[in-house]
Amino acid sequence: MTQESETQAAAGAAIIPVTLFQQNCMLLWDETTRQAVVIDPGGDVPLIQDAIAKANVNVEQIWLTHGHIDHVGGAAELRDALKVPITGPHIADKFLLDAVVESGAKYGMAGVRNFTPDRWLEEGDRVSVGGLDFDILHCPGHSPGSVVYYNKAMKFAHVGDVLFAGSVGRTDFPGCSHEQLIHSITTKLLPLGDDVGFICGHGPGSSIGQERMTNPFLTGQA
After folding, report:
1. In this predicted model, what pLDDT tens digit does every residue of 140-175 receive, in sequence order?
2. What whole-number percentage of the chain has pLDDT above 90?
3. CATH number, domain at 76?
4. Which of 54, 89, 140, 165 is 20 to 30 A from 175 in CA distance terms?
5. Rounded to 5 degrees, what are φ and ψ at 10?
6. What number is the average pLDDT over the span 20-41?
7. 104-143 pLDDT, tens per residue?
8. Residue 18 pLDDT more than 80?
9. What residues make up the domain containing 84?
10. Is the CB of residue 185 less than 8 Å from the CB of residue 162?
11. What total of structural domains would you count in the chain?
């Protein structure tokens, strides 16, 4: 099922839940140019391609928030199908992208491939699709190389698995750190402002203000 939305009439988006993990793969585009990106194609590539066709957009890039299998399992396949470059995450997640096949085997995900992105991202980098510009925030904790894509004009962020509605990313994987994750959230995401809305890697989106007030991991109740 695809959920579509628009942000200030400048951007369009479709969320495509993929794989048994129900990971929020996101198709994001500039409404004026119809140029688009796919964020975190975790798998079920035919579903993603169907969403692209229905939106009638031209995908020019694949963006990754981090290297876990449920977010990158379909990246190499989609790259080859669309003949577009892969951008992100931070190079600290290289060990995860070098082990996609191994990770896929653990979860019964066949046909996945190891790959290297065309561009690694660093804190302070900027990426764009059409006229939409996104600043890159390096937010380690859930994974060493997790990044957040933030558009200041739209007051919108894609935070991957760093922050969720009512929760935060898991930190029981190799290279994870709960303390580092909370530090990333409090020093990188909360300062963006309470009126910033976000999409996360699983489940419903939220806002920075809502999570600041109610998220038990941020209020000290967890």
Report:
1. 999 999 999 999 999 999 999 999 999 999 999 989
2. 92
3. 3.60.15.10
4. 165
5. -95, -30
6. 97
7. 999 999 899 999 999 999 999 999 999 999 999 999 999 9
8. yes
9. 3-219
10. yes
11. 1
Residue 67, token pair as written in the block: 């290297």
Helical (H) or strand (E) element with 194:
none
Evaluate whether 216 touches 166 at the Cβ level (below 8 Å). Answer: yes
Give the pLDDT score at 7. Answer: 45
The mean pLDDT value for 6-30 works out to 89
Cα torsion through 42, 118, 112, 73, rounded to 10: -10
Let me know: does 122 contact 135? Beta carbons within 8 Å: no
162 touches 148 (CB < 8 A): yes
DSSP string, 152-189: TTTTEEE-TTSEETTEE----STT--HHHHHHHIIIII
**Where do the H-state alpha helices sit in the chain?**
45-55, 69-72, 75-82, 94-97, 100-106, 178-184, 208-214, 216-219
Distance CA 98, CA 118 (A): 14
**Is 90 in contact with 146 (CB distance < 8 Å)?**
yes
Take residue 172 and report the two structure tokens written for it.
Answer: 């029981």
